[in-house]
Amino acid sequence: MRVLVTGGSGFVGQRLCPALIAQGHEVLVVSRTPHKVRERLPRECDIRDSAQAFIDSPPDALVNLAGESIAAKRWSDSQKKRLTRSRIEMTEQLVSLCEQLGENGQPLPKVLISGSAMGYYGDQGDKRVTEDTSPHDEFAHRLCAEWEAAAKSIENMGVRLAILRIGLVLGAGGGTLQKMLPPFKLGLGGRFGDGRQFMPWIHRDDLVEAIMFLLNDASLSGAFNGSAPHPVTNAEFTRTLARQLHRPAVLPVPACVLKAGLGEMSQLLLTGADMRPERLEAAGFRFQYPTLEKALAAILSPERSA
């Protein structure tokens, strides 16, 4: 297949693109700065500056992972707009590409795998969360809901849509662990607030496999939770990470400090959801890293032996 990937130079995309190539697919990547991301991607990737630039070589499938990091900056009103715009505009580009292909009588992609996030559900306390759980209304939910709604319009053209609500992505060299590791390696890590909030997570390799799984099974559509089957609380995550690094984790960060420093964005650290991949597992997907212990052991073993 010819697979068009947005966000291909990001933390997940950098692993997804070579995996697709290894399976014999042709990979097309959208990046606003093709010359800057070239070195991060396999040389076989065809990188162009917009989805519309591929109108002359229609893709068979679309994978939409683009979007500014939700935790990069404090949530001012202008930053909230940027976060929403970065997701909606790229999604609309893909919808527009399909519209143009249809108008030209060219074949449309068979499927769009579109990213979303665990934030769709908002704060769920300790309630078990599946794809059918009603969301809690807050900014993270509204952001994800708008993102998903933009993608859903593609179904009107007969394109299969699978939405992947992604948990915290764990892997070496980036993602959630990149900011957490330095203090934990120094023995300065600790839980956030009371530590009872859930942290749904997924190993980057499992996320890549889940995307491929959804690409290849034409019977799968709708929303899927992209997280490991054994989510943990923040306190458990903290203990497990410290144990893997053979360091203590005795310096909790009080909720009031996070709220003062981060404002509304502190919700990302102080609330969560016990999110389960019910639909993925029911479809037959099997995780290589179902437990946090196994995932962190695989990610951190090269560092421990270095």
Automatic annotation (TrEMBL):
CDD domains linked to this entry: SDR_a8
Residues annotated as domain DUF1731: 253-299
Record-linked InterPro entries: DUF1731, Epimerase_deHydtase, NAD(P)-bd_dom_sf, SDR39U1
Pfam families reported for this sequence: DUF1731, Epimerase
NAD-dependent epimerase/dehydratase domain mapped to chain residues: 3-217
Top-level taxon of the source organism: Bacteria
Family: Belongs to the NAD(P)-dependent epimerase/dehydratase family. SDR39U1 subfamily.
NCBIfam families, sorted: yfcH
Protein name: TIGR01777 family oxidoreductase
Organism: Vreelandella janggokensis
